[in-house]
Amino acid sequence: MATYQIDPKYLIDDDEVLRALYAPVGGLAAKKCLSALDDHATAFIERAPFLCLGTQGSDGRADVSPRGDPAGFVKVLDANTLAIPDRPGNNRLDSLSNIIANPSVGLLFIIPGFDDTLRINGTAQLVRDPELLESMSVKGRAPKLAIVVSIDEVFMHCAKAFRRSHLWDPAHFQDRAGFPSLSKIILDQTTGAPDDEDEMKRIDADLEDRYKTSLY
């Protein structure tokens, strides 16, 4: 695949030039941003089993991490503060290290079947308060830490992206069997996946078994 090169004459690197391409923000879109949770935002968070966490390191590199648990897993501590449990993962700790270096975070809350989403921007800290962690236990296992977010901005995001993508429409669901397994993808990208089909099936089965015992 040939390397894509941006023609400088088509590059947009000035905010004034950018905004000239679009109509001005107006109406409710200009007014909808809140500085704290209201009843609607709180209810949305209590229903959400999934969010995306955006962070940025000290070197400016951005990262987005998925976070999921039973609906309502994010605790609303007060109108300006949320707590997100950190469940077992791959121990890369990308998001957590980024938060230490740069506490600014962005959250996108998603509810299955809802086309609209909730966005929150703020600053985060990593907290090991035993009482807070115990309140976030699942199956008797408390998280090692919580990501506590102080809220700066809260606003609902419209349904256009989800409508365009048909994300929740079963008619547009794709067959997962038509794509390589996660184990095969990672092995192909690293040490190389085995050619033996039975061995690959065993590796995939081992991953599924680990999912059953390592979620919490």
CATH class wording of the largest domain? Mainly Beta
Number of helices: 8
CATH architecture of the largest domain: Roll
Can you list the strand order of the major beta sheet?
A: 2-1-5-6-7-4-3
Unreliable stretches, pLDDT < 50, 5 or more residues? none
Average per-residue pLDDT, rounded, comes to: 96
Estimate percent helicity: 25-40%
What is the end-to-end distance? 41 Å
- Strand proportion, as a percent range, falls in 15-25%
SSE order, as H and E?
Answer: HHHEEEEHEEHEHHH
Number of strands: 7
What Rg, in angstroms, do the CA atoms define? Answer: 21 Å
Which structural class best describes the helix and strand composition? alpha+beta
Q: In a nutshell, what does this entry contain?
A:
With 216 residues, the chain is an alpha+beta fold. The protein has helices at 15-20, 27-31, 39-47, 94-101, 130-134, 160-165, 182-189, 197-214; strands spanning 50-56, 62-68, 75-78, 81-85, 104-110, 117-127, 146-157. The protein is globular.
Description:
The radius of gyration is 21 Å and the shape is globular. The N and C termini lie far apart (41 Å). The relative contact order is 0.13. The model has no long low-confidence stretch (mean pLDDT 96). The chain folds into two domains: 134 residues, Roll (Pnp Oxidase, Chain A); 41 residues, no CATH class. A seven-stranded antiparallel beta sheet has the order 2-1-5-6-7-4-3, with helices on one face. It contains eight helices and seven strands. It is 30% helix and 25% strand. Pfam families: PNPOx_N (PF01243). This is Pyridoxamine 5'-phosphate oxidase N-terminal domain-containing protein. It comes from Martelella radicis.
